[in-house]
Amino acid sequence: MDTSKRFEKGNGGCPSIQCETNQDVLCQSCASGVVTAAHRVAQRAAEPCLFGKGGTCCRNCNMGPCQIIEGVDQMIGVCGADAATVAARNFARIVAGGSSAHMDHGRGMALAFLATARGETPYEIKDAAKLRATAQRLGIDPADKATTDLAIEVGTLLVNQFGQQEGGLALMKRAPKARQEVWAKLGVAPRGIDREVVELMHRTHMGVDQDAANLLFQAARCALADGWGASMIATELSDVMFGTPVPIRTKVNIGVLKEDEVNVTVHGHEPVVAEALAMAANDPEIVAEAKKVGAKGVNLAGVCCTGNEILMRRGLPIAGSFVQQEVVLATGAVEAMVVDVQCIMQGVSPAAGQFHTRLVTTSEKAKIPGARHIAFDEHRALDSAKEILRQAIAAYPERGKHYIPVHQMDVVAGFSHETITYMLGGRFRGSYKPLNDNIANGRIRGVAAIVGCDNYRVLEEVHIELAKELIANDVLVLVTGCAATGMGRAGLLTPEALSMAGDGLKEVLEAVGCPPVLHMGSCVDNSRILIAATEMVLTGGLGNDISDLPAVGCAPQWMSEKAVAIGQYFVSSGASVIFGPSFPTTGSKVVTDYCFREMENLYGAHWDVAQTSNEFANKMLDHINAKRKALGLDKKKERVLFDMAMRRELQTGLQDVGCHGPGA
Ligand code: NFS
C-alpha cells in the first residue's frame, strides 16, 4: 500500500485527508500542530511487518522472537513450532484479548447493577419489565418479588457467571436448540466466563497446546463466553438499569459541539460514567456554575462506543467515531475529554495538551500520561461526575482560537431487539413474523450486519458504499459500533435513506417507518444481533438454526482485538463473517483454510476476507443467495448489478458528509 497517497498536502499546506469533516477541521490554523493517527500512518517509514500481520511472528518465549515461514524447514521456531501452531496461538491470543475487554466491561456492569439494586448508587432500575423477562429466562420466578429483591437475585446470578468453573452459561439457553446441540457435540460450550480466557492464555503459553485445531476450539469457547456471556450480560443489565433503547432522533459528527456551551466529550465504553455525567450535566447546580463562566450549559457528546450507549438510550449526540477522536480535540472547542476504557488512543493526550482541553481518566485500569485522573466510583457517581464537569467548566473561559465545523447529520437510532419486535409486529402481537414472511416472499433478500471499527489504514469508506449496495439489493442492514457512527455521518440512519433501497425493502420498511440501516448500539450490543437471529429462527420458516438464515456479518475496517472475538462468536453461532482489509492468520494457509473452510463443516459458518466494498457486497450477496437457495427461496430474487452510474445516482440522493480513512 502506498501510504504517501493517503496524506497529501492540501492547498493551504494543511493535510488533505479525503474526508470532508476531518479535513475541514485539520486545515484550520487552530489545528496546526495536532498530530492524528492519520498523520502517524503516513509518517511511518515501514509498512507493517508481514510476519506480524500474517500471524507468524512468535514472541511467546525468550528463545525468539521467531519469524516462521510455512513450508520452509529452516524457518520454524527455535522450539520447533510451525506456522500453523504460531498463527493459531496468535489468533487465539487476539480472541482472548478482545473477549477479556468485553468480560471486564460485563463484570463492571453486573457489579454496578448489583450495587444499584442494593440502593448504593444514584442509578435506578428503569426497565422493570425487562428485569422480569430476564429473570424468567434465567430460571428465576419473578412472581410476587419486589423489583429490588429480584434485581439482587438476577445480579447475583449473573455476577457469579464470571467466576463459575463448571456447568454452562445461563444465557446460552436462549440460543436455538439446534445450535446448543452443535456446541455440545463439539465441546465448545463455555463453562464460565473468566475461565475460558485464562485457559486460552495458558494453552498459548510456550510448550502447551501445539495443535492448531485444538487451539481454535478453545478460541471459539472463549469467544462464545464473550458473546453469549459477558457481552449479553452487559447489554441486558445496561438496558434494565438505563432503559431499553427505543427509536430516537439525534445527530452525529463534530458539528454537534457547541459554541456557547461547555463541551464535554465522553469517550470509551462503559455507560456508567456517561450516564452519571448526563445526570450531572442537567443538575441545576452545575448549570448555574456553567452560566457563571458565561456558558449556556454543558453539552455532552460521545466518542466511540460510549457515544453509542448514550445515543441509543438518551438521544445524546455523537461527536466522533474511533478515527475522529483526535480530530474532535483539534477543534480547540472541547473543554474536557473524559475517558474510561478501550479504544482511547494515547495520541489524545498530546492533542488535548495543545489546547485548554482537560483530558480526564476515570478508571483505575486506564491511566494516560498527561491526563488528570479523577477516579470514578459508581457508589458516589454523581459527586464524581460533578467533580469532572467542574474541571470542564473551569476550562471554558480559557477556550482560545477554535473552530467548530458545520458538519452534523440527523440519525434515528435505538433499534434494540425489543424495538424491532415491536415495530414489526405492533404492541400486541410483537413478533419477527413480518420479517420472516418478507424474507420468504422475497421482498427482503436477507439480513447483513456491518459492525466494528473504522481504521485509517483502509483506503475506501467501505462501510458506507457497502451498505448502499446491500440496501439497493433489498438486504436489511444492522449496524453497531463505529461502523454505525460512519453510517450516521453519511445519512444512512434516517428513513429518508429508504430512497436508496430496493423496491421490496422500501415497501416493507416504509410501512413500519424504519430506516434501511438499523443502529443496534455499541459493540457489546452485538449480542442484540445474536438475539435477533435467534428470534428469526424461533419464529419459523427460515430453517432450524442460525446457520440456515439468509444472513451474514462483516467488519470491513476492523482494528481492535474485540472485533476478532466478536467475529469468532458469530462464526461459532452459525453466522459467517467477512473481515477486511486483512485477516490475522494469512501467514499460515493451514490455519486460514481451517477458518475459511473447516469451520463451515463444524459450525455451519466460516470466516472470509475482502477488501473493497464491491468485493464485500459480492461475497455477502452470494452468501445470502446461497442460503435462500438452500431454503428453497431462490427463485424469488434476482441480483441487481451495481455499476458506477448507479453509485453516482445514489450519491446524489443524499448529502454525504462521510468521514473516514484518509484516502477514500
Ligand atoms: Ni468496537 Fe467500540 Fe469503535 Fe472498534 Fe473501538 S469504539 S467496542 S472496537 S473502534 S467499533
TrEMBL record:
Lineage: superkingdom: Bacteria
Enzyme Commission (EC) number: 1.2.7.4
TM annotation in the entry: none
Annotated residues for binding of [4Fe-4S] cluster 1: 49, 57
Enzyme class: oxidoreductase
Signal peptide: none
Binding residues annotated for [4Fe-4S] cluster 2, in chain numbering: 58, 61, 66, 79
Catalytic activity entry: CO + 2 oxidized [2Fe-2S]-[ferredoxin] + H2O = 2 reduced [2Fe-2S]-[ferredoxin] + CO2 + 2 H(+)
Single annotated GO MF: peroxidase activity
Cited Gene3D superfamilies: 1.20.1270.30, 3.40.50.2030
PANTHER family associated with the record: CARBON MONOXIDE DEHYDROGENASE, HYDROXYLAMINE REDUCTASE
NCBIfam families per record: CO_DH_cata
Protein name in the entry: Carbon monoxide dehydrogenase
Species annotation: Dissulfurirhabdus thermomarina
Origin organism lineage: Bacteria, Deltaproteobacteria, Dissulfurirhabdaceae, Dissulfurirhabdus
